Amino acid sequence: MSITSEAIWAASPTTTRGQPTPLSSDPKGERIAYAANKSIFLRNIDNPAISTQYTQHTTQTTVARFSPSGFYVASGDVSGLVRVWDCVGEGATKGEYAIIAGRINDIAWDGDSQRIIAVGEGKERMGHCITADSGNSVGEISGHSSQINSVSIRPCRPLRAATASDDTSLVFYHGAPFKFATSIRGKHDRFVFGTAFSPDGANLVSVGSDRRIWLYDGRTGEAKAQIGEGVHTGSILGVSWAKDSKQFVTASADQTVRIWDVETSQPTQTWRMGGPAGTPASIPDQQVGVTWPAARSDALVLSVDLAGNLNYLVPGTPEPTRVVRGHQKNVTAATMLGDSLGKPTFVTGSYDGRVRAWDAESGAAAAPANEGAKGHSNYVAALAATTLSSSAFSAAWDDSLRALTGATGASPAFGADPAKLPGQPVALAVARAGSSSPLLLVLTRDALLFYTCADPPAPVGSPFAPPFRATALAAHGDAVALGGEDRSVHFYALAGGVGGAAPSLEEQDASGLRKPTAAVTTLAFSPRGTYLAAGTAAGKIMVYAAGAPFAVKTDRWSAHAARITCLAWAPADDEDLAASGSLDTHVHVWSVAEPGRRVRAANAHKDGVNGVAWVGASKVLSAGGDAAVKVWKIGV
């Protein structure tokens, strides 16, 4: 048995309101680079389902920039470290350099891919110039009294550099080695968020929160003109040049991306996300970053909004040609649905309340159209789905239970009205999932609740209060299992819940069953309900025969080193293989027939694995703390 990585469906860029989000594209116009949580993602532009993840940073990442050669990436984080690494081979780190005692906001390469300037929010200094291969100093960054937000190096000789700061000034440098030349003040009266040299080196542009755009001579730093005064009505957070140096593009908090002509100083194209002019302002649609990839025949522009969505903008078209969505925060729950409908869909929920439906074949993620109005407001605790429909159900720590309809299509939507839960949800399960009368079970900290699998879900009967603190739930047909902090698994038979009869649970006699050695954290029935897998807080998995006489099938699934967070069985009649995810960041695939036969995907997700599911009998999907979804090929 083997497990190999097949694909990474990347997390969305990490964004902060009122701060620029750097995007970088490679010289061939094939990939973009951005920071997301503690990782850097390199993503194919034409097929966003193809991506590479760099995970060597140990703190929140902030920026990633391709070298002009296209062979390396320099990335920074909030601790002030810059790492230079290979982006063509296996991602080997070439160097790690401590730049400042604080957050790195931006990085720039020189045209020879030899020197780097990194800037940010330091204490003794706000930035530094180094060689990319050794970290030796090649100048100093000075002249600012507040954090530096952006840096750019002139791509041709004589070398020049410019930095933009919260102190409202630009500083111009001569190099190399780089040294202070002049401070440009009085052009901006608020924070300066972006600056960039044109590819031919003739011009320098700066943008800021005062909504102004200034052009300067790229060789001397002398101000030429202010353009587009009053056009943008919000802070301008990003700027990028076209490859011909005749145009540049800006991204603004007014929800617009605009292309500007240098010669006429006028905008030639405007895209407004979130609806046409005059529609109500939408905070998630604020544009916080932009890049104009070179060497592309379609002149594609890529922007990122505050929600982390990547917008594909082609000049001459009024709307984005594609919007790439995903998660920005760690994925906390997942489920699979639609397999029986021929449309396998991986539904995930995250820490910030977002729910995404991933096409298991293409890797495209769909977001509920009404998520802003009808979605969850925080941590999605659990997801569940029936077998015969395209609907899923989500429960979150806003104490609501919601139906997600059309989850297997391109336009899922939340139901109009959620069900209000009496307590904080812990787990969800669907009993009789393959029948015409499925029943939704909701486990809270105090009770097990019964709801219809409808939109909206309606409560049925009275809650069941177990005599122990239940922490895990699973159901298959009329069989229900609860796991608890009492280090035991309890089996129940479900009755009622059909034709108006109130549902009830009758506990089965499994008193002689050997208990797990730690609190039960997750449960999963095998496809036919023959077995029940129980994961514990100690990292061990017990497999039980789920019918009388109850017995331990195997206790040898014990390779995890931390809490088991999720379990899923392969949809095969032999009920042999199961996948598990853990806080130890690994994904394991196990065999019932051969308990000692297992395979491991080590370090599958930074900060832990929180969801696993099977697509057929040979593919596993996983999601976790890095906000990404990963596809694993299982060879038997």
Strands, helices and their partners?
Layout: E1 2-9, E2 24-25, E3 31-36, E4 39-44, E5 51-54, E6 61-66, E7 72-77, E8 81-86, E9 93-98, E10 103-109, E11 115-121, E12 127-131, E13 137-140, E14 148-153, E15 160-165, E16 170-174, E17 179-184, E18 192-197, E19 203-208, E20 213-217, E21 223-227, E22 236-241, E23 247-252, E24 256-261, E25 266-272, E26 287-291, E27 301-305, E28 310-313, E29 322-324, E30 331-337, E31 345-350, E32 355-359, E33 365-366, H1 371-374, E34 380-385, E35 392-396, E36 400-405, E37 413-414, E38 419-420, E39 425-431, E40 439-444, E41 448-452, E42 470-476, E43 479-484, E44 489-495, E45 504-507, E46 520-525, E47 531-536, E48 541-545, E49 551-557, E50 564-569, E51 577-582, E52 587-591, E53 598-601, E54 609-614, E55 619-624, E56 629-635
Antiparallel strand pairs: 1-56, 2-3, 3-4, 4-5, 6-7, 7-8, 8-9, 10-11, 11-12, 12-13, 14-15, 15-16, 16-17, 18-19, 19-20, 20-21, 22-23, 23-24, 24-25, 26-27, 27-28, 28-29, 30-31, 31-32, 32-33, 34-35, 35-36, 36-37, 36-38, 39-40, 40-41, 42-43, 43-44, 44-45, 46-47, 47-48, 48-49, 50-51, 51-52, 52-53, ...
